[in-house]
Fold this sequence. Notes:
The chain is an alpha/beta fold.
Amino acid sequence: xxxxxxxxxxxxxxxxxxxxxxxxxxxxxxxxxxxxxxxxxxxxxxxxxxxxxxxxxxxxxxxxxxxxxxxxxxxxxxxxxxxxxxxxxxxxxxxxxxxxxxxxxxxxxxxxxxxxxxxxxxxxxxxxxxxxxxxxxxxxxxxxxxxxxxxxxxxxxxxxxxxxxxxxxxxxxxxxxxxxxxxxxxxxxxxxxxxxxxxxxxxxxxxxxxxxxxxxxxxxxxxxxxxxxxxxxxxxxxxxxxxxxxxxxxxxxxxxxxxxxxxxxxxxxxxxxxxxxxxxxxxxxxxxxxxxxxxxxxxxxxxxxxxxxxxxxxxxxxxxxxxxxxxxxxxxxxxxxxxxxxxxxxxxxxxxxxxxxxxxxxxxxxxxxxxxxxxxxxxxxxxxxxxxxxxxxxxxxxxxxxxxxxxxxxxxxxxxxxxxxxxxxxxxxxxxxxxxxxxxxxxxxxxxxxxxxxxxxxxxxxxxxxxxxxxxxxxxxxxxxxxxxxxxxxxxxxxxxxxxxxxxxxxxxxxxxxxxxxxxxxxxxxxxxxxxxxxxxxxxxxxxxxxxxxxxxxxxxxxxxxxx
Length: 564
């Protein structure tokens, strides 16, 4: 069958035919019962045997027709349901292909109907492949349904033809033995019944095999259906231009190795989701970054905060924000903290944003499978490779919501103003902070005064050169090393890495731990550390101390991603 044949099939006619056949079968059953109960009388002789023979053949003929009808009706009903489901899929696929200016010919092949600039869309080859694959999948199901229906009808005819032959043989045997004793005749009838039962058993086994074949086809269709979303996500990401490629095109900047590796790993993870979904017969959402969760006023929690009086005033919230999940409506989502800091000398209000890092375990499926937090291990790769994640966009929205709330409380409005913001975060929180600092849309609304991070790979994030970036690193913490030092171009001039000498365990559970960073930074703030680190800390204080001295008001706002 061709694509057009599938659209021309009328499932309603097949259902109606099946219903009509069952009605006929019911009427035949009534006639068979009436004829079977007919009393032919006690008389004997050749005419009596002839009458009995004619009566048996009539009833046998009617039973043969009655037996043939239910399997045919069942086959028509099953095929009608399958054709209806396939037609629905054809209509949906044709509509989606049409939205991309592709038509589907009667044969099932796609043809391009785009004109003008639409033909230059770089995503068209991928979309064409996607729609063509869907069309071939539906054609396969269409022809399987057609062949299966034909096979069931032929098998049913074959089985019942054989049974009719045996019934005829049984009738002939009864005629030949009509003059024999009633016991011999009864034996022949018993044998005919056993043969009939055997044929019924064989027919049921054939029908079971056909049902198994349909189940296999349905299972295959289900698995293909679940693999499709993973393939769609992969194609969508392929059609997304990573930040390093935009920088190369627009400014001729050489891409850094970690950016390219991050993009490659993220795409590889999404591609691996296709066979994973097929095998699991479910959408596992592997490497599914989804879309940003957009917080509302109900997601804002205002709470008292201590006055800021030094670098530790911004480091402590950076680490504590890991433990500020929404306790009510969104317990599975983290929160970002926005602290308004009022300058005691000028009254100017600046804002410190504290962003949590990775909130999911690496070993569990939730660490890679589109969890609501949006700060999983897959998001780490996307953040480095593409410079953007659903959590990044969600946090930008939440930050703006909190600042609007604070300014409204002060009788001011965000319109026409660009409040100054300091972005801070540990681990993935530092990646997000750096990506927000480089976002043009965010820069239009706010002045990014700096980025302070701990244990983050920030050398690849492309933070604008006029924004100072200070990144604390423990000597043997592997996480901030994954940027490969910004190779091949090296650490950007606006990035200052403050590296602490190693103490204690070499395990990442110690070197990357929030408390380890808090302890090391606290000691450095007291002047305890290498001369180089003390100098860098003094430089940080000189550039950014305006953000961590003054009275504060803190807001915590829910953020995350949505994948359903």
